[in-house]
Amino acid sequence: MNNWIIAAVIAAAAACLCLLWRYVRTRQKPSRIDDMEGHEFEYFCAELLQEHGFCDVRVTKGSGDYGVDILAEKDGISYAIQCKAYASPVGVKAVQEAYAGRDYYDCMVGAVLTNQYFTKPAVEAAKKLKILLWDRGYLDEMMSERE
After folding, report:
1. Quick one: which of 72, 89, 87, 91 has its CA closest to 38?
2. What's the CA gap between 45 and 143, in Å, rounded?
């Protein structure tokens, strides 16, 4: 009988450790990208995209960019990318900007790239408007590949 109790305690401890490990790995970690201002973040993202196979990467001018911060190409597909360095989740406005900018620049794909995550309405709008959402997890993954 004692063996069953010991086995149950060990199994419960292992389950707790697994949950703790999952929590630690998925929680948002402060990073230098969280301290960047908008324009600095745009250039950082442009460099990161180049390192991940995008070519002809260029940052648009600051004002009058029609909702797009970066224009790029990968595998023959043109991208219009809106960058958002925020302290809170990104909303629908960024999705609308990427949508408008994609059409203005005649790009095939529109995307929003952020150091945060997206609100539920933003996710719903992106699905409807066919805009890619590249969130903190995606950005962290791209950054970890460069290390």
Report:
1. 87
2. 10
Tell me: the pLDDT tens digits for 90-133? 999 999 999 999 999 999 999 999 999 999 999 999 999 999 99
CB of 55 within 8 A of CB of 74?
Answer: yes
Q: How far is CA 137 from each of CA 13, 140, 147, rounded to the nearest angstrom? A: 28, 5, 16
Furthest CA-CA distance within the chain: 74
CA distance 90 to 98: 12
Angle at CA of residue 37, ends 87 and 62, nearest 5°: 120
Asked whether the CA dihedral 11, 15, 18, 24 is positive or negative, the reply is negative
> So what's the pLDDT on residue 115?
94
Backbone angles phi, psi at 6, to 5 degrees: -65, -45
User: Over the stretch 17-49, which tens digit does the pLDDT of each residue have?
Assistant: 545 555 444 444 546 777 778 788 999 999 999
Tokens for 25, please give them. 């790995």
Quick one: 12 exposed, middle or buried, by C-beta within 10 A (0-12, 13-18, 19+)? exposed
pTM recorded for the entire structure: 0.76
